Amino acid sequence: MTANYPPFAVFPDLNCILRTPSGAEYRGKLRQHPSTEVDGEHWYEGYLRAEHKDHVTADTTLKDRFNRDGLRPEYFHADSNVEPLRVKLNRIPTAKRTDKNADTLVGEVWNHEGLWTVVASPSVSESLHLAGNVVPSRHELAYGGSRIKQYQPQAAAAGSEVIEDAPPAARKSRAAGKPASRPA
């Protein structure tokens, strides 16, 4: 069912679904808070829970360690206040806004695999409040031991050559009178 939605989807009732590129799926409920900087704007926060048992177990272990020690991995940025499975979506600061990103919300999610960045914006669909994408955090990408580094989106390099594939080889025709096999 969730494959029909973008990787990050928030519904009008503020229930949300988050799918990481690695396949982990989470659900949760967000709370909407008024912005302290700009009247009429909002930011969102909430906690997520995994849908699959293996992910629940791994995330519970992560939360227990965090609650016991309060430590974050050393490669997280110094100002990080991220907590396991807590998502906070804030608007891009007013000083960095352009016409293209004025409505964009950005946040981080820390699960048992690593640190993910969520980028979302208001949806044009009536059935979705916000829609967005989930990618590995830039701090995760800089960390050599990252388990999620391979999920980095591949950007098209400017000026790169397009190499066309050779056309597929022609198939040999079946012998006349021999029935074709049918798939089971």
Task: Furnish the topology, listing elements before pairings.
Layout: E1 8-10, E2 15-19, E3 25-34, E4 42-50, H1 53-69, E5 86-91, E6 105-111, E7 114-122, E8 130-136, H2 138-142
Antiparallel strand pairs: 1-2, 1-8, 2-3, 3-4, 4-5, 5-6, 6-7, 7-8
Count of alpha and pi helical runs: 2
Placed side by side, the strands forming the largest sheet appear as: 1-2-3-4-5-6-7-8
Oligomer: single chain
Would you count the extended β strands for me?
8
Structural class: mainly beta
* Fraction in beta strands: 25-35%
Low-confidence stretches: 156-176
**Whole-number mean pLDDT:** 85
Alpha carbon gyration radius: 22 Å
Termini distance?
26 Å
In one word, what is the shape?
A: globular
Please indicate the count of domains: 1
Largest sheet: 8 strands, antiparallel, barrel
SSE succession? EEEEHEEEEH
* Secondary structure: helix percent: 10-25%
